[in-house]
Amino acid sequence: MNEDYYKILEVHPEAGIEVIEKAYRALAVRYHPDKHLPSRKRWAEEKFKQLSAAYSVLKDPVQRRDYDRQWHDVRRATATPAHAANSGFEEEAYFQYRTGLAALAKAQKASGLDILLGKAESELEKAKEAFEAVTRRYPESKYAEESFYRWLKILNESPDHSEAFLSKLEVRFVEFEERYPAGAWTAEVKLEFARFRILKRKDVRETKKILHFLTTYYNDPGLLHEARALGEYLSGMEKKPSARRERVHG
Q: What is the distance between the alpha carbons of residues 194 and 209, in angstroms, rounded to a whole number?
């Protein structure tokens, strides 16, 4: 036995059955293979299998009791100083990752009054700091790639258009692609980079290259819809100068 079912379901070892059921339903939706790009479909299938296995055991009182006893014995027998250290780092990474997700959810659900009072911005800042912490402090963690993507997305939505900020953000995009050339979140980051190139750099040529790559090598409906929408925006930008020239010469 080498699977921590509680960590897989993202619940505390003392969680009640209602909490376990709720966690399983939410994670089953998140990791369902049909909701992921072909490039990470196998990864999603494996995650889904792990969820199902964990839930099938923890939902049954007898199986859960036996699992708890066996898992306790395994952890005690296999623990080493190095393993304990790595486990500690992963737990810290997981804590920061969950903190980021919770803060991001609050920011996205903020009411108009919360936005006016700055509460949404505060939660977004908290999410940004948490995702950056996972990315920088725990690069080997299984939560690092997704945290890196979410950190970049928050930064890319920032109203800061100063050259210093944009230059640093561009470096971070490149850093992600070098670290995860074919990762589970690479396509989403490429789409964010396309938004960056056209909305903040007004770089039509590079944006076209990225969009062509996405529409050629990926077939996820949601991603293709967003890529095509950005492509239409790009086409609209290219038509505006010619329209102005026609008015001048007309």
A: 9
Locate 94 and state its tokens: 């997981």
What is the residue whose two structure tokens read 């299984």?
A: 142
Q: Where do the structural domains in the chain lie, given as residue ranges?
A: 1-78, 159-250
pLDDT tens by residue, 111-145: 877 776 788 899 999 999 999 999 999 998 888 99
Dihedral sign, Cα of residue 105, residue 108, residue 114, residue 120: positive
Q: Enumerate helices (H) and strands (E) in the chain, giving the number of each.
A: 12, 0
The rounded distance, in Å, linking the Cα atoms of 145 and 249 is 52
How many angstroms separate the CA atoms of 164 and 191, rounded?
Answer: 22
Class of the domain covering 1-78: mainly alpha
Percent residues over pLDDT 70 in the chain = 87
pTM above 0.70, yes or no: no
Would you list the DSSP string of 54-85?
HHHHHTSHHHHHHHHHHHHHHHHHH--HHHHH
Backbone angles phi, psi at 182, to 5 degrees: -140, 50
